[in-house]
Amino acid sequence: VYLRNVITNAGWDKRAMVGVILNQDQLLSDILDSIWFKGGGICLLDEEGNCILSSDPAFSDWAQAYGNSNADGRAGILRFEGMDCYTREAYSLVNGWRYLSITPRKALMRPRDDMVKLSLILVGGALILTTLLCLFAARRQYAPLRRLVSALGGKDVKGSEYSFVEETVAHILDEKDNLRQALDEKVGYLRDSGLIQLLLERTLDECEAQELLEECGILLPHSGFHLICVHMIRPNGQENEQDWIVLRGILEEIFCRKKITHYLFKLRGRLMVLINAPESSEMTQNLYKAAQEMEQAMMAKGQDGLVAAISRAGTGLASLHTIYQQVAELDAYLSF
Residues with Cβ < 8 Å from 286, sequence gap 6 or more? Predict the structure, then answer.
């Protein structure tokens, strides 16, 4: 029952009283339908703290506990039955009603906790997915390595397959270098043999000489030829191989710097230099200067006793035997 006095306009004299009878169940239903939050409830108390209606008996206990607390009437924290609750109090501007909101702390923290749980689930899922992708990528990348190891004969490899592949590749490269070195030696021997045959065989005609050049991989693009015969004279008659290596290096440097096509090879204890260049009257002078540079370079290295015989100019492959005969005779004369 809700009672209200009726007063006159002239004064505060009570002339009548109006009473309203409310159905508690209907009122409670209407109020619950009008509130926006879910999962809560409502409790209505009179001015003496007696419960008029409540959607849950516990709510009236909370309201009474708040009335017995030392709350300042604004906002604060109320601990009830071991649970922290946030409180908020306000007064109506229309009537004398007082509104009190009591919210358990865990109810406010539930969305945050849900977000934390969702974040943990997402992070965990991302980690699992990343792990699976890494395993898939590693397996996909590792399969070719296993096939490579198997192809290299490492079916029972103990240790790291990468180390096995690295060692095998290094061994293959070493073998390749050794084969290249051996091949270069064979090619050099074949080339020197072909040049020696051209110098010594007087019966070779132009066609036979050209075929020999092709077989030995010798390129002689010009028609002009000169031959230099270098002889190192030692007092004891013993030759040092290191001296020959130094001499070859000096001659290679001189003729490469002058951009002259040349071939160096040993014949009968002499170092031969076959010069292939266009026919020119200045070539003989250039060769004399090259011989002087050779002698000066060898003396600078503490080597002396050099004899160099230079042939006249020859034309065509058929002239190779002739210019060899010239330097052989000249070398024999200078060495006497």
Answer: 258, 260
Cα 306 from Cα 332, distance rounded (Å) = 13
Q: What angle do CA 15, 19, 21 make, to 5 degrees?
A: 175
75: left (phi over 0), alpha (psi -120 to 50) or beta: beta
Say if CB 258 and CB 202 are below 8 A apart: no
Q: What is the pTM of this model?
A: 0.47
In this structure, the chain runs to a length of: 336
The helix/strand count (H/E) of the chain reads as 8, 12
Provide DSSP, 253-283: HHHHHTT-EEEEEEETTEEEEEEEE---TTH
For residue 181, give the amino acid letter.
Q
Q: DSSP alpha helices (H): ranges in the chain? A: 24-34, 57-68, 105-151, 161-200, 206-216, 241-257, 283-300, 320-335
How much is the CA Rg of the chain, to the nearest whole Å? 57
Inter-residue contact 28 to 56 (CB < 8 Å): no
**Is-contact 201 321, C-beta < 8 A?**
yes
257, 207 contact by CB (below 8 A) = no
Q: What is the pLDDT along the chain (336 residues), one digit of tens a residue?
A: 566 666 655 555 566 777 767 777 777 777 767 665 566 677 777 776 677 777 776 666 766 666 655 555 556 776 776 777 777 777 777 777 777 777 777 777 777 778 888 899 999 999 999 998 888 877 777 777 677 777 777 666 666 667 777 777 788 888 888 888 877 778 778 888 888 888 888 777 778 888 888 888 888 888 889 998 888 776 665 667 777 888 888 888 888 888 888 898 888 888 889 988 887 777 878 888 888 888 888 878 777 667 888 888 888 888 888 889 988 888 887 765
